[in-house]
Design goal:
Length: 377
């Protein structure tokens, strides 16, 4: 009995140690796959665009007095259907809207397959809700027709207006037609053309190009892949379409051990967004941050003639009071940071807004205290 209790205690202790080890023991590093860092040249989506009409709107269509192209388009459409509109007819349309139709033609799409389309108003239509898109040819960059779109619109917004008041939720001037376009023409791909296939890396990195070529050669044989530069890897393909498809299926899931990306900070000057990756570090530096505010108050001053005066006019002028206030900016010392958390903590200690950080980060880069590349978009 004593031995059984002793064995149970040992099992409980071992189980607890294993459970705690799962929390602190570093797990295996998950390598990225080849298809996540590279794509096949020429195997991509193609943009399609077309001009069409949406009908069946509940009085929320284009006001034809300011959008004459809607009337012209409807007249041309009716003529194609054998309906002749007398010249000089003033058509007051409220249920028709001119729209642009866009779609993405995926790679390897074949005639008869369906793709989604986005419909956007071109004129002054109040809403496309409840409308139906009339058959619209969608053309590619070469001017050829690759799909034909038609169907009922789905608009995610809603709105109402009355007596000068208006309430609107989301956007009413654009909608989608799920599977609303039928592919009419296929786009040729380089998968079965030539002896070599080119892999284009998503980012320019020599180490990634070398690792891609090394992984392909380790799996498919020496000399199959060759890194041409920091973005292009050339791969020799086997003969036969079936063999090429199997070849791509084998290499696209190859694991890659990639080096850490370069330290980089991306700044959006329009929105004030600042994105910092994990490799950004700081050198010891000191930063003084203060704010300057300017306040302008305008007070109207009216001067008018005396009562019962036969001469003089009332004069109105504005008196402006301008106040300039500058908050004191103390000199804050930022320690050297080798981790992203240290950099964020150091910048947050300044109490700066994202707009202020734009100038602070650029000044730190100029001073040599910021170890990162800054990209302004």
């Amino acid at each position: 009995m004593y031995d059984a209790e002793k064995i149970i205690r040992k099992l409980i202790v071992a189980t607890a140690l294993l459970a705690s080890a799962a929390l602190w023991w570093p797990g295996p590093v998950q390598a990225m796959r080849l298809k996540e860092v590279a794509s096949v040249q020429g195997v991509r989506t193609n943009q399609l665009v077309g001009y069409g009409l949406v009908v069946g709107l509940d009085g929320t269509g284009d006001q034809t007095t300011s959008t004459p192209f809607t009337t012209q388009s409807l007249t041309a459409l009716l003529q194609q259907m054998g309906v002749t509109v007398p010249a000089g007819t003033n058509m007051q349309l409220k249920n028709v809207a001119a729209v642009m139709v866009t779609a993405q033609l995926p790679p390897f799409a074949q005639p008869g397959q369906l793709v989604d389309v986005t419909v956007s108003s071109m004129g002054n239509a109040k809403s496309l809700r409840g409308g139906t898109l009339i058959a619209t040819p969608l053309k590619g960059a070469d001017g050829q027709i690759y799909a034909l779109a038609q169907g009922n619109l789905i608009v995610g917004g809603a709105g109402a207006s009355a007596a000068g008041s208006k309430v609107q939720i989301n956007h009413l001037s654009a909608g989608r037609v799920p599977e609303g376009a039928t592919v009419e023409r296929a786009v040729a791909t380089p998968l079965n053309q030539g002896e070599y296939l080119q892999l284009d890396l998503n980012a320019n990195d020599y180490n990634t190009a070398r690792e891609v070529a090394r992984a392909v050669n380790a799996r498919m044989g020496s000399g199959v892949a060759q890194a041409m530069d920091g973005r292009v890897v050339r791969v020799r393909m086997p003969e036969g379409m079936d063999a090429r498809v199997a070849f791509m299926a084998d290499i696209e899931n190859l694991p890659l051990e990639l080096a850490a990306p370069a330290a980089k900070i991306v700044i959006n000057a329009r929105t004030g967004s600042v994105v910092v990756n994990q490799n950004v570090s700081l050198n010891p530096c000191a930063v003084a941050h203060g704010s300057l505010s300017v306040t302008i108050n305008s007070t109207p001053v009216i001067s008018q003639p005396s009562p019962f005066s036969n001469t003089g006019t009332t004069v109105s002028k504005d008196k402006a009071d301008i106040t300039i206030k500058q908050e004191p900016g103390s000199l804050i010392q930022l320690p050297a940071g080798t981790k992203l958390a240290d950099v964020v903590r150091a910048l947050n200690s300044l109490g700066a807004t994202p707009q202020d950080l734009l100038a602070i980060l650029q000044a730190m880069k100029t001073a040599g205290a910021l170890n990162a590349e800054i990209e302004v978009i």
